[in-house]
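Minutes, methods subgroup
Present: GH (chair), OT, SY

1. OT presented the first of two proteins processed in the latest run. Sequence and structure tokens recorded below as shown on screen.
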Amino acid sequence: MARIVVGTCGFPKARHRCYESFDAVEVQQTFYEPPQPETLARWRAEAPETFEFTVKAYQAITHPPDSPTYRRSKLPPADRALAGFFRDTSVVWNAWHRTQQAATTLRATVVLFQCPARFTPTDEHIANLRKFFGRLDRGGLLFGWEPRGEGWTDDLVRQLCRELQLIHVVDPFQRTPVHRKLNYFRLHGIGGYRYRYTPDDLQRLLRLCRARTTYCFFNNVSMWDDALAFRTLLRHR
């Protein structure tokens, strides 16, 4: 059986309880407004050595300035005009440097680039992706890409992931990954955030994890309970 890493998107409980209960956490604060390096260093120091962090890339890389997610950002309005959609701007590159710093401080394994639904496969957007990822110094990091807009066919996603060395990040109950060194699953809830996974759902998830190393991050209303239930299933498999 391949290694299965279980955690949640963000800290649904106190950090020490997450460290005690799971294998990893996908840090969400780095998407809205990256915390200060001192804060992230404290998180790394207080976690067990074997505990893994993954990092969600700062929204100024991926999301346009009119996204409602910017309500939690301290990015000045003038800078927001140059943010998002992987554009070749000073704001996007500064956002990457802040993301990279956060990942380095946490000794993260994966940086997740989650795209908004409006990031569709236009010629401009694809060119932006190629230029952005073609210039990055990965420094040992793995990059995950979660395309969510319409039009991203399996063939196109597979081509770009191979070319740009990206992991295709999916909710496995919605889509099958078409290219990956490992599985990176984000479980948003079947049909919506309020969904609670059933024992049959978790058995199905386990079957989907068997081929290779898999990260399973729950991101629904009952993420804590569902992640614990999945950990229990793994212990008794």
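2. SY then presented the second protein from the same run.
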Amino acid sequence: MQNYDVLVIGAGPGGSSAARFSARHGLKTLMIEKRPDIGSPVRCGEGVSRAWMSDYGVKPNVHWISDEVKGARIYGPSERRPITLTAENAGNEVGFVIERDKFDKEMAALAAEEGADVWVKSPALSVIKEDGKVSGARIRHNGQMVDIHAKMVIAADGFESEFGRWAGLKSIILAKNDIISCIEYRMIGVDSDVDYTDFYLGSIAPAGYIWVFPKGEKEANVGIGVTISAMNDRWDVRNYLDNWIKNHPGYAKGRTIQQITGGVSVSKVRDKFTLPGLLLVGDAARLIDPITGGGIANAYVSGSYAADVAKQAIEANDFSQEMMNRYEKLVKNKFQRKHLRNWIAKEKLGKLSDENLDKLVDIISEVKMTEISVEEILKAIQAKYPEMVKELEELI
């Protein structure tokens, strides 16, 4: 048996953030990771914005940056003129294509530098509860069972969040529209543009999209996400991606050197993601953006919020649900409105025909906007192309 102030389950960006800032607050902190190698295997498209980094003391590092992009391009089914998002209209939302395993290791190193203990190959096996409060976990570490008692537990164990489920929080996503099945190839010898990440919409990826994230000259992550409700069998996703590559000579000539698969939640923010003594961060709290599928930045921000509330709870010796609700309020104030809007947009875009998607992309690509957001896009459509309003009235 060992005692800590804070126990963090999972060493992804959310867990590393929670551990880093908990340790900075002077709390005795342990972060555990079930895998022997933090960041591996990679289950990520590896794109990340730069907007949040300076606020949280994360310095861009050539060690984990494969490519710094100028912006993103979004193509309709006909692949005519794309919507182009650059620093001029998207600000610091543009960013980097990274080596995710190296990035995760550096985020964990930042936590360790602040004083957090880090254990790898140390899965949580069960929840320890005392008087209705989550107060630790039984862990397998170095071949032994160890009971870690902690004043606060922060779970950063992915959108399935086994630990949250064991503790009593429902974690199953019932709506098939809220899970994306993904496959990605790391390809060499391709003709991608190193200045842009590219996204392709339409029936080539039903209720999802194909992405190309450049990783330097002649190399790129080429992937696809398809809503599982649009799939007939488990091979559909691979077939969609292979067909797209075959029809694009600049990628058909390439060679695959790595393949990853996985699922991504694209749901609303969870209604409840705390219990007395327990806070869920990042993907476990469903903070993945429903439109982009991105979650690195959101996980890191929520991890810092969890550390702040953990400090407050420990100082006040108050681990009640009311205290935990402070964290829920912080997270929902930051993310909930945008996520709800993007969730509705995701639902609507997934139902548009290729013809209307082309029309929508053409409209947006012609309108000059100083800020790119779902709301700004809808205002532009409403102002200039009122005939499209009915098709998108739920969003407006």
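Chair's summary of item 2: The first helix runs from residue 13 to 24.
Next meeting: continue with the remaining queue.
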